[in-house]
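Inputs:
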Amino acid sequence: MSRGPRLAVAVFPGTWSERDFVHVADLLGWEARLVWHADAELGNADAVVLPGGFAHGDHLRTGAIARFSPVMGAVQAFAERGGPVLGSCNGFQILCEAGLLPGVLLRNDHLQFRCDWQWLRVEHSAGPWLASEELSSGDLVSLPISHGEGRYHADPDVLAELEASGRVVLRYADGDGAVTDEANPNGSLNGIAGIVNQGGNVLGLMPHPERAAEAEVGGTDGLRILRSLERWLVAQPAVAERRL
Amino acid sequence: MRWVADVHVRLRPGIADPEGQTIAGGLRALGFPSVGEVRAGKLLRVSFDAADQEAAEEAVSTMCRRLLANPVMETADWELQAEGIPDEEEIA
């Protein structure tokens, strides 16, 4: 593909990370377009991002109201066609409420809002967001977290299926790569920080890759996730040609 | 006909409730050492139109299933009352 990916960045009332994604897209030479939640069209996007924040004030439950926004119908259709979707933080919560990913994010077990750099272990590198050229299984990456409701929970059978099918892609770990209770910032089951859908094209993660894209702010591991998208798109000629 | 539903949303049994645990600690500190488990939940009062009791029950059930509670982590139950209908004591 002769141009960078086109990102559609969904903006709900209360979203706060959309401009960070646009900034990083600029750094990478990509195009990024903000899409208001009341719009039902994503344009000719190559990928969709649901950024962090507090969509609709997080009222009732995180992500509960956002799922009824018109843009979510378009996101659902895009995801069902195999389009790459990334939901970070509040975006992950929205994807769960919308049924695009299983499970739910509950209040952190210690009740504190946790804003910190966090080590994560890559469990499975595959799909548009975790390309093996950028990230290998077992790699440690450091990304910021910033949430009060990140405790991943799913029914035991759902959890077992996620684990068995390799859809748990990121876990909270310590600096040595050990997944321990002490390294778990919110009480998530099995230290789960990120999962993908059955097709592998929808990634939900609590950390913020867009906040780790420049050495000046503390790290660039987030770029490895975002650059994965470009590698994946290049390897999908059908997708690339259709959109050129 | 106008109806009012008091919907109680609760965390499902077995799901850790750190908010409830913190409240329990507060109550013990207040001088009630016998306080055991506290479970936090939500009360939502919803008023709406429905033709009759059956339609109203069905409406609340759908509201709970589709939005008010997330079945992965919550249960919902409710009390339903028709608005503006005097109760039996007032009639007597």
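Strands of chain B lie at 2-11, 41-49, 74-82. Flag for discussion at group meeting.
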